[in-house]
Design a protein that fits this description.
CATH topology of the largest domain: Diaminopimelate Epimerase, Chain A, domain 1
Helix content: 40-55%
Order of helices and strands: HEHEEEEHHHEEHEEHHEEHH
Largest sheet: 6 strands, mixed
Distance between the termini: 66 Å
Radius of gyration: 33 Å
Shape: elongated
Strand order of the largest sheet: 6-7-8-9-11-10
Strand content: 25-35%
Number of strands: 11
Number of helices: 10
Number of domains: 2
CATH architecture of the largest domain: Roll
């Protein structure tokens, strides 16, 4: 909007008028200025028709049309409620737009489309990528379900409590939770602690069936200690908790802690 307004005023070719007056009169006229700054008795007002009048001691064009074109190149926040605009004018805008045109042409060639259809092509590709991501996550979920049998076969008994601890590869947190749900539901009663490593990122999920919650076994308390052993942190509810870790070499050691953690929680 700012860019549009400025270019409109440039095209309207207003004369830029300089008026010298007293600071008091400038304030009474409504001139814009940084009045916390120190001004002398005489100040200079720059007027652009009835649209703008400001206190300024800088250099100015004689007519707004001298500016040619105005293009905002960046806009950032520099303080609470204060934004800074960086812009170019005149021939610099022409060079900038030429560069943008060249880049648009190159992108169109890469995407095998023309400039007129570039936006539609970009939207289509974005939707295609989202769909592929959904398919990948779905396949990961199916793969996770398929390995549930192997995971269930690793069950051990901690006194009279069924426990499964298992490390898998390349499952994100969402898929790991789905796998944990699958294993817990098929286990019936017990504790499930799963770990996964994706590109050096460690994820843990702990599931505890509600019948064991009543006996003091908490997924949240288990996950805190397991994650801590790998340099991570996390937490959650008594029946489900998740966490992240840092040191993948400590995963086996962390999982081996779980039997004693369970024994220490029993009421």
């Amino acid at each position: 909007i700012i860019e549009t307004i400025v270019n409109e005023k440039i095209l309207e070719a207003y004369d830029v008028i300089t008026v010298e007056t007293s600071l008091l009169e400038a304030q009474e006229m409504g001139a814009v200025g940084l009045f916390e700054e120190k001004y002398g008795d005489k100040v200079r007002i720059i007027k652009i028709d009835d649209y703008s009048q400001e206190l300024c001691g800088g250099t100015h064009v004689k007519n707004t049309s001298n500016i040619g074109l105005f293009e905002i190149t960046s806009e950032i926040g520099i303080a609470a409620g204060v934004r800074r605009i960086e812009a170019i004018t005149g021939s610099a805008v022409y060079e900038y737009l030429n560069q943008m045109e060249s880049e648009i042409e190159e992108i169109s060639n890469i995407l095998k489309t023309n400039k007129e259809n570039l936006l539609d092509k970009a939207k289509s590709l974005t939707e295609d990528l989202k769909e592929k991501d959904r398919e990948i996550e779905s396949l990961k979920g199916k793969m996770a379900t398929n390995i549930a049998d192997d995971i269930l076969s690793s069950k051990i008994m901690v006194d009279d409590i069924a426990l499964i601890t298992y490390k898998v590869s390349d499952l994100d947190m969402n898929s790991l939770r789905n796998l944990g749900d699958e294993v817990r539901n098929r286990l019936g009663s017990g504790v499930v602690v799963l770990a996964s490593v994706v590109k050096d990122k460690i994820s843990f999920v702990t599931m505890v069936t509600k019948d064991l919650n009543a006996g003091g076994i908490s997924a949240g308390n288990i996950i805190k200690e397991v994650a801590k052993a790998t340099g991570g942190s996390g937490g959650g509810r008594p029946d489900m908790a998740q966490a992240g870790g840092k040191d993948a070499s400590k995963i086996e050691e962390a999982l081996n802690m779980v039997p004693e953690l369970i024994r220490g929680m029993r009421k």
